[in-house]
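FW: tagging you since you asked about this chain on Friday. Here's the raw sequence from the shared folder, copied in full. Didn't touch anything.
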Amino acid sequence: MASLDTGALELGALDAISRLDSPMQRLDPRAKLLATTAFLVTVVSWGRYEIVGLLPLAAFPLFLCAAGRVPLGFVARKLLIAAPFVLVLGAFNPIFDTAPREIAAGIAIPGGWISYLSIVLRFALTVAAAIALVAVTGMNPVCSAAERLGAPRIFVAQLALLYRYLFVLAAQTQRMQRAAALRAPGRRRPSIALFGSLVGHLLLRTLDRAQRIHLAMRCRGFQGQMPLLRPMRFGLADAAFVACWVAFVAAVRFFDLPALLGRLALGSWG
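HL: got it, structure written out here
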């Protein structure tokens, strides 16, 4: 039960951080979404054995977190929750890709291990950037920005409602788990039969609650768009933000920044 409580609180923490008053939070959501999209496209455009070239891209999610006052520990916990799926999925690479690849003079390892590390690094970069984007912007502004930039309205509405209904589902699950614990004190986990019954009742209650919430939203004038606390205004600061980060990710993609920085550090430029 404690884990469910913690999960619900951390979902609400994303919205709380997005309401902070800082230059990053005040940027237009479209600017942050465009910069993040350029970042994601750059990350997935590298070859499957690339590791070193991806490292400079970590600057983007770190900048969002630092400028938006997003705790790095909070982002790390979210990464750990999703990490097992990627770790298991990529674990087959070393089995099927055993061709050696040279990583340094005279040192070669199976290519599957390199592609495995590359997958894990891409996962960390993309998920950290997505979490940071939602934390410094808020889910509703991100959805509104996506719609203004041409995303299908039905897709945006479903994404916004899915995020919002996570809170309803978490609260309903907490109540049912608390009721089961009070009826069977001392039992840490429900039996399989009780678990199946709980899941069935959770589905029925969630459908009923979702219908009532939808009717309440329609009564309040909901027409498929969530209201925003801050109106969107795309100014010079927003354009500069997008231009700087697009230029940065393009430089990382088309120039070997790690090698250039290494030459500068060793004083062997040219």
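FW: The beta strands are 100-104, 107-110.
HL: agreed, and DSSP finds twelve helices and two strands in the chain.
FW: great, closing this out.
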